[in-house]
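Issue 218. Parser rejects a valid record. Input:
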Amino acid sequence: MQLVALDSIYPGWDGMDAGVAIARDEILFPHARGLVGVWQRWDWELGEPAEANAVDPSLPLIVEGCGILTPSTARVSDVRAWVDSPTLSRKGRALARDGDAFRPHWARWAAQEDAHISRDDPQRLAGIAVHVP
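Output the parser choked on:
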């Protein structure tokens, strides 16, 4: 089993769509064709790409993160899950995890999430829906 977290790929706080495109084109599409996928980790402290990582096409793969469930990624996914939680709960968990580093970016990130939900309707694409209080 392989797990790729989009938090490792997003190129900065304004990079949700770019991170999803990287995951789609460099990980999911190759994996669906039985090819090795290669992606670069994003170094949040330096604000630049870091080491490369390979995804083995012979192993099951989970890609998780905000924005990943779109019409194009759904077509190459065996299992699609939507995890939802109230805004205040999500914000509380994010700030507890990342503290003041995340606080100034919350509104920017939330706007990208809202745009993704409006554009891609990920809950409709999911076969599994989980609500977290």
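Fixed in the parser; the record now loads. Residues 39 and 53 are 5 Å apart (CA to CA).
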